[in-house]
């Protein structure tokens, strides 16, 4: 029999018979490893312990200590175990498909009766029984005809459809967990007992159409989450509980910020409170960008098809664009226009007006541009994922040798903005050349080096994402980590040598030749809508005082103090504090509770004693105790807190 050479992570090489399995390799090393092994990486491919290896390769044996493959396997096996449990409890249930998703899995079932919350408990109990059986997991490769006939005989039409939808004519892999069988590409664990019985939980039941076909009967989907240990599951459930409290949709209602409705799906109706947050943030960004040398422009929202064809968006992005038919002069054929999904082509048009010299570069444009993109209704999520949004968009037109300095400048700008908004924990990722790309390797070398050097010069290390750049240039992604550990990719900087050339942008170089500028697409917040949602959830609705829509409520304790309440509120408004009054004939505790739910940062209570002494009783959001302070002192402190960070910094600098 032919032999193969396998190289282990420590560099050690061993020869084995061709066709050896990772399970056999683990057993040849030690009995302990044979028991602990869960899968292998063979030339970086995730490999089942039962799959044969037929050629020389690198190999690494995985155990539960290897978190990434372990999580995938545990979740994948639990999908099968859950489907088996459902069929053992309700034998007439049809199983369809059950993939691994982030933090867990789901499986879709065709069942006449709907699942109930009580059923979830029964399924979990049965799953733990199956896990405790420690039954072996085995796999075979079947020809397609055999697999189709098997499922026809078993009365499982969904599996037959699934096989028919798989392209090609390669044999299929079948898996058994005990006696329960499923079509699956694998890999899987050695036996059901390797699944931690105390580290999973079934979460919810939802409706789903088979392969997204709404003409078919709706299936029932059960979601689960799982980890490699009980403590990790507990931490995840705690995070979900906290995330539910912070849900921007819930807080948006409580704070009266916005609403959404079917008649404008994926678009936002901003209420006065929400619009105040929006415009305060926009005003801050406008000042910051102006200070950093950006020139604000505004470009049309409806643009003819011709420009989108020239930019390349018509071919590559049309399915996500909202098309607009325009009957020009009652012509026989209506013109096809589109709502802009992005601002880039418009900014090139502004750049193209007039002759530009190398002395004009870098030229920085910014726009708070309203964009529209078609997102499937199932992908929409509050104000985080919408169809109509505004970007804090910017484009820098520069020469090749200016990329590094402009990127460094942008990173420093972004760092200041994020810090002002309360985000100090963020990371940078550098996406490099994909396999299919335009431009020479020499050009890509320069572009990638410029971005990497700029990150280090700005004081930030970066994670490399090989091959994930756009076909026309590398990019940087800036990812925030919020208060409960979730990551949000917000800021970007994308190098583009393609669009300026396609749209005819040029400048006069020092030698008199016409050159194509490099275009740096950059955004700090991304979209205002999504970023406001992130801010709401980051701060659990308790927005920084300068950004809070309702900063102060001055509430009367007795009606005799109403005039004093009005005087206090007027004085606060006079120094730039957003103040309102509550003169209702309600108990002060009731008023405090109501405004606390609305996340008002400061409540000033005024009664007869406060009126006589020129004081206010101060209650700050999240604090149980109150304090009685002179109104003049409170007014000064609140006026200072109401300043946006950039303005406050200027005031401090002037005072110094």
Walk me through what this model shows.
The chain is 36% helix and 26% strand. It is of the alpha+beta class. The strands form eight sheets. An eight-stranded mixed sheet has the order 16-20-21-28-25-24-22-23. Strands 2-1-5-3-4 form a five-stranded mixed sheet, sandwiched between helices. A hairpin with an 8-residue loop joins strand 12 and strand 13. It is globular, with a radius of gyration of 31 Å. The relative contact order is 0.07.
Strand content: 25-35%
Characterize the largest beta sheet: strand count, sense, and whether it forms a barrel.
Answer: 8 strands, mixed
N→C terminal distance: 84 Å
Unreliable segments of 5+ consecutive residues:
none
Shape label: globular
The DSSP helix count reads 21
Strands of the widest sheet, in order across it, are 16-20-21-28-25-24-22-23
- Strand tally: 33
Indicate the structural class. Answer: alpha+beta
Average pLDDT confidence is 94
Brief description of this entry?
The protein is an alpha+beta fold. The chain has 21 helices and 33 strands. The strands form 8 sheets. It has an 8-stranded mixed sheet with strand order 16-20-21-28-25-24-22-23. Strands 2-1-5-3-4 form a 5-stranded mixed sheet, sandwiched between helices.
Annotation keywords:
alpha+beta; five-stranded mixed beta sheet; 21 helices
Lay out the secondary structure.
Elements: E1 3-7, E2 13-17, H1 22-29, H2 31-36, E3 39-42, E4 45-47, E5 57-62, H3 67-89, E6 94-95, E7 100-101, E8 104-110, H4 117-133, E9 137-142, H5 144-154, H6 157-165, E10 172-177, E11 180-183, E12 200-209, E13 218-226, H7 230-246, H8 248-254, E14 258-259, E15 269-270, H9 272-291, E16 295-296, E17 302-304, H10 305-311, H11 313-317, E18 323-326, E19 335-339, H12 344-351, E20 363-372, E21 388-398, H13 403-420, E22 426-431, H14 441-457, E23 463-465, E24 475-481, E25 487-496, H15 499-502, E26 507-508, E27 514-515, E28 518-527, H16 528-538, E29 552-556, H17 562-574, E30 579-582, H18 588-597, E31 602-606, H19 608-613, E32 615-620, E33 627-630, H20 631-641, H21 645-655
Parallel strand pairs: 1-5, 16-20, 22-23, 29-30, 29-31
Antiparallel strand pairs: 1-2, 3-4, 3-5, 6-8, 7-8, 8-13, 9-10, 10-11, 12-13, 14-15, 17-19, 18-19, 20-21, 21-28, 22-24, 24-25, 25-28, 26-27, 31-32, 32-33
């Amino acid at each position: 029999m032919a032999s193969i050479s396998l190289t282990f992570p420590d560099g050690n090489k061993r020869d084995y018979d061709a066709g050896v399995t990772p399970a056999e390799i683990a057993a040849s090393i030690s009995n302990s490893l044979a028991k602990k092994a869960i899968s292998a990486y063979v030339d970086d491919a995730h490999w089942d312990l039962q799959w044969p290896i037929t050629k020389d390769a690198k190999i690494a044996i995985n155990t539960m200590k290897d978190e990434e493959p372990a999580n995938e396997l545990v979740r994948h096996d639990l999908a099968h175990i859950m489907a088996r449990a459902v069929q053992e409890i309700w034998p007439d249930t049809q199983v369809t498909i059950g993939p691994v998703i982030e933090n867990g899995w789901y499986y879709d079932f065709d069942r006449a009766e709907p699942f109930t919350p009580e059923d979830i408990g029964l399924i979990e109990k049965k799953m733990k029984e199956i896990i405790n059986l420690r039954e072996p997991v085995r796999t075979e490769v079947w020809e397609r005809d055999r697999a189709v006939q098997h499922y026809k005989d078993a009365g499982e039409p969904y599996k037959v459809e699934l096989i028919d939808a798989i392209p090609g004519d390669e044999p299929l892999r079948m898996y058994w967990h005990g006696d329960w069988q499923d079509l699956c590409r694998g890999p899987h664990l050695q036996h059901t007992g390797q699944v931690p019985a105390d580290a999973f939980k079934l979460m919810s039941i939802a409706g789903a159409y088979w392969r997204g076909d709404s003409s078919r009967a709706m299936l029932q989907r059960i979601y689960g989450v799982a980890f490699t240990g009980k403590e990790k599951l507990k931490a995840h459930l705690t995070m979900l509980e906290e995330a539910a409290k912070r849900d921007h949709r819930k807080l948006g209602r409580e704070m009266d910020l916005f609403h959404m409705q079917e008649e404008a799906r994926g678009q936002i109706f901003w209420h006065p409170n929400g619009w105040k947050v929006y415009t305060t943030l926009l005003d801050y960004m406008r000042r910051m960008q102006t200070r950093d040398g950006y020139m604000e422009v505004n470009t049309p929202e409806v643009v003819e098809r011709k420009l989108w064809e020239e930019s390349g968006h018509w071919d590559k992005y049309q399915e996500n664009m909202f098309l607009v038919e325009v009957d020009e002069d009652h012509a026989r054929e209506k013109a096809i226009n589109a709502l802009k999904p992005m601002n880039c082509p418009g900014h090139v048009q502004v750049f193209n007006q007039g002759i530009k010299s190398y002395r004009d570069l870098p030229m920085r444009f910014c726009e708070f541009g309203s964009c529209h993109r078609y997102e499937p209704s199932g992908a929409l999520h509050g104000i985080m994922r919408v169809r109509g949004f505004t970007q804090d968009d910017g484009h820098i037109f520069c020469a090749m040798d200016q990329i590094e300095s402009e990127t460094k400048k942008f990173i420093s700008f972004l760092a200041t903005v994020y810090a002002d908004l309360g985000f100090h924990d963020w990371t940078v990722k550098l996406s490099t050349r994909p396999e299919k790309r335009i431009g020479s390797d020499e050009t890509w070398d320069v572009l990638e080096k410029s971005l990497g050097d700029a990150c280090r010069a700005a004081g930030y290390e970066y994670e490399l994402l090989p091959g994930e750049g756009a076909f026309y240039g590398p990019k940087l992604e800036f990812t925030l980590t919020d208060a409960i550990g979730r990551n949000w990719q917000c800021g970007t900087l994308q190098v583009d040598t393609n669009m300026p050339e396609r749209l005819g942008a040029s400048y006069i170089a020092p030698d008199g030749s016409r050159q194509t500028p490099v275009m740096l697409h950059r955004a700090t917040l991304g979209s205002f809508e999504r970023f406001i949602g992130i801010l709401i959830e980051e701060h659990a609705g308790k927005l920084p005082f300068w950004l809070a829509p309702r900063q102060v409520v001055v509430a009367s304790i007795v009606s005799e103090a109403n005039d004093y309440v009005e005087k206090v509120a007027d004085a606060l408004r006079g120094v730039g504090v957003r103040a309102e009054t509550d003169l209702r004939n309600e108990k002060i505790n009731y008023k405090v509770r109501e405004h606390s739910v609305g996340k008002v940062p400061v409540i000033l209570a005024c009664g007869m004693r406060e009126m006589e002494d020129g004081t206010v009783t101060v209650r700050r959001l999240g604090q149980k105790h109150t304090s009685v302070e002179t109104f003049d002192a409170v007014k000064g402190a609140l006026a200072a807190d109401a300043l946006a960070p950039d303005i406050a910094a200027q005031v401090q600098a002037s005072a110094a």
